[in-house]
Amino acid sequence: MLTFSEENHIKSIFHLSASSQDGVSTNSIAENLNTKASSVTEMLKKLSEKSLIVYKKYHGAQLTELGRKTALNIIRKHRLWEVFLVEKLNFKWDEVHDIAEQLEHIQSEKLTNQLDKFLDFPTHDPHGDPIPNTAGFIKFTPKLKLSDLNIGETGKFIGVKDSSSTFLKYLDKRKISLGCNIKVLHQEDFDQSLHIGLDDTNLTISIKSASNLYITKI
Amino acid sequence: MLTFSEENHIKSIFHLSASSQDGVSTNSIAENLNTKASSVTEMLKKLSEKSLIVYKKYHGAQLTELGRKTALNIIRKHRLWEVFLVEKLNFKWDEVHDIAEQLEHIQSEKLTNQLDKFLDFPTHDPHGDPIPNTAGFIKFTPKLKLSDLNIGETGKFIGVKDSSSTFLKYLDKRKISLGCNIKVLHQEDFDQSLHIGLDDTNLTISIKSASNLYITKI
DNA sequence: AAATATTTTTAGGTATGCCTAAAATATTTT
DNA sequence: AAAATATTTTAGGCATACCTAAAAATATTT
Predict the structure, then answer these.
(1) Residues of B in Cβ contact (< 8 Å) with A115
(2) In sequence order, what are the residues at sequence separation of 6 or more whose Cβ sits closer than 8 angstroms to the Cβ of residue B77?
């Protein structure tokens, strides 16, 4: 049985591991969790004690297999609850994160699995992130960004990199929703902004926005 | 924003208030929460500080109007989640308490209200306890026990007093379920056990069991 | 109303999880 | 490679929420 704080640290290390081969740094975890490096150091010792991470002083932390399983279980719960909130309780995709942050800590294997069944075994959450299965297996899809496409190419919008409420609302306003096809029509020389085609409308988005949209080539 | 522990104390005081006119005693709260009297004293000071209870040293605690609202909101969430678990996720009525104890602390008014709507505004939880509305209004039904009936009278089973898993499973085994009609046929002189009629079958239950069943006369 | 028993509070201690400031180590720059 | 800079750890504090044991207040018996 882990505390909320322990679970949050494990989750943070998991997410930060994606963008770093070797150990996750104390500072990056502190920043990610809005806490201080000294607090993280304490926690790393404890998690190491519990065999959830490998920790070498001054050299960051890496999840053990047990730690990885633990992280994936929390993430599984988070994403299943997000699906529940959107599909069943009519929440919008920009409203679910904070509530799921609370719900992900509820302890009951049966609850998680029954919820999964009730939702008809969804494979992705409302932001396009994959949902790990009971065994901790997660479907990996290579992450191509809209900004990686060449002029003339078309991509299917499958996920967001930054899932902040502000960005999600921005997409809503422009009717850019998960699953839609986006064609890159033209790129401005001046600011690299992209002219894109979406169904029967055209619009312009900044390069920053374009690099927050995950797509698959079509 | 209250801590889990604060919420649990408030809830405990609410439940214990039912069976006592004046203040709820420190010891009874301690027993109810599986903690020690000294810990409760500390907490009572804090809750008093926050205007959730009126506390006079050596004379127990009473909820203020704010405290009562707070308690009812927690109980509302607890009971709504119990309905969700039974109706939507196929849990049995003896399995839901511990999970609801966790879920009742999730903070999101919108979540509670959307859940309420999703469940089609249930009035009672799976054990027959009434669900408070948003305003903290709770439907009060006078609580008659099966053991209060006279020979020959019939009652409709509407709730349990003791909702321990053991007792609920006992009822399942005997096919005694919420809503069924029970006729008192005969009482043994020796041990006060009751012979009852249930649909087309007859069975015998102890006086202890009978006084755990809430009914309305029919 | 005094003695006894029970309940409640106070005093002082522990573990968790956070903090700041100083010391130790690692990294980068020159 | 030494100096400067950045990162990380240690040391020492604080609040919460628990605990035990002793003291104080209340309730019950005689």
Answers:
(1) 89
(2) B103, B104, B105, B106, B112
